[in-house]
Amino acid sequence: MMRSILLVDDDPHILKALTRHVGWDNLELTIAGSAVNGTEALELFRELSPDLVMTDVYMPGMSGLELTETLREQNPELPIIILSGYEEFENARQAMRWGVSHFLLKPARVEEIEGVLREVLLELDVQEQKRRLEERYKLEIGRTLPYLRERLLMELLTTRYSAEELPEERLGYLQIAIPQQLAAASIQLNRPPRAKKLKEREWQLLRFGAGNICRETIHSRLAGYPSIQGHVLDYSEDMLVILLLDSEAEELSALLTEAVQEAADKIMNYIQLQAYAGIGAVKQAMHELIDSYLESREALLSAEYQGTGLVYTYEQYGGKNQWTLEDYSRLLQQWNEALLGKDPGAIWEIWEVIHTRLQEDEQNAIQDIQTVCVGLFTALMYFWNACCPVRTPPMTMPQFLQTVSDFPTWKSLTEWMGQIFPAYLKAAFSEMGVKRNRLVDSVRRYVEANYNQEISFMGIAQELHVHPKYLSQLFKRITGENFVSYLNHYRIERAIEYLQSGQHMVYEISEMVGFNNPAYFSQVFKMITGRSPSEYLNA
């Protein structure tokens, strides 16, 4: 890379000697210009923008020291070399205040001048490399920061931390403002009968559209609130979580309620997808985010059973109202559905909501709480028998009933429930691990028997009586690939067999292996084999 230098000296012989005898070409330096005083040099610098400057100290008009001071104010990083006579050297030391670190005494040998120039050029190269690395680093951080930030926020929704475990520097690095208050909202996307018949790609487009509506709504709503950060998280297949983090003291609850209501209405009007939402109470610290989120899920239960397109707050339908047995029946239904789906993540999540609700219930009689606990345990026993039919449970139903009746207070009962239920679940999940390969084998057998038809992974999960998310994660963990990839590879293997028989046309084979669109079949075929069906036949 060719760089340029500005030479400044009031002695024309020195300028001529520098121009003739220094090996500028070998140094990859060009002389941008020369000046005989500081004033002229300053004008040339502004006109030519050289990469470095070599100047004398004493000159008529503006001296070299004054020139250095002026240049430093305009360009703090500019390399400046002082070429000074011996008697002027003490004065030149003043230039150190302006960051000048290279001095040459007159008369200087050519080798000395070239050595200093090489040192300066090397410093410039190092600075340039550092600048490029910093730009690349900032670019990469800009790409990964949203992912890292979302991962931390998702973690805060599922893992309870203390305040000390969330240092401010970690939040600052992820550009998350330290909030004075925060709140969470959960939006459930409900697949109506029309949407349930959609192919997976079409459903994902609807989910994507719903997420965009939420993000645009939050962005618009927060336009006048610079102290509030808004985040929209794709929490699960049918769940979005909205977070507001306020570094000042705005009216967060009302703002979040209005924004979520607007988003739910737009989702219904624009993409005809039913949505209902629950909003947690406002909290004061980042480690309390999980509490607001769990409260939003509790409020969501009211939204789910009261009607769609509505927003329910925790203050209205959560901890501030007394829960009746009818209210608890909704939680029991969620508990039963989670156990039926056999998805550990969903089971743990609803259990935490239920246990939190029980721990906060100071109003219902102990007999009512006991009734709820018996209902929870009854469903848990069915789950145990389905997962571990030949294994003795940790506690039988008669033992459970006797123990529950012995607790004099709701507090002691719920504390005990917080011990016995996790123990049951951990043992059941451990036993389920033995059966995992059987589930994957069942999926493979289903594909072998039905690959020539339209296959719905949701349908397979329903037929196997497991939650589709759990089955999807299990299938990928054991096979190393997701279901769609496995299905496409299996269909193309069968298609190759049909091609090799020479008895069918390409469009016929497309239908025979489950592709309704011959063009799409050819695209998948080429993606997997590297050749189109016709190219494969001619090879």
From TrEMBL:
Single biological process term from Gene Ontology: phosphorelay signal transduction system
Keyword Secreted in record: no
Give all residue intervals belonging to the HTH araC/xylS-type domain: 441-539
Q: Which UniProt keywords apply?
A: DNA-binding, Phosphoprotein, Transcription, Transcription regulation
Q: Which residues carry this modification: 4-aspartylphosphate?
A: 56
Check the record and name the SUPFAM superfamilies matching this protein.
CheY-like (SSF52172), Homeodomain-like (SSF46689)
The GO terms describing molecular function are: DNA-binding transcription factor activity; sequence-specific DNA binding
Q: Which residues form the Response regulatory domain?
A: 4-121
Entry protein name: Two-component response regulator, YesN/AraC family, consists of REC and AraC-type DNA-binding domains
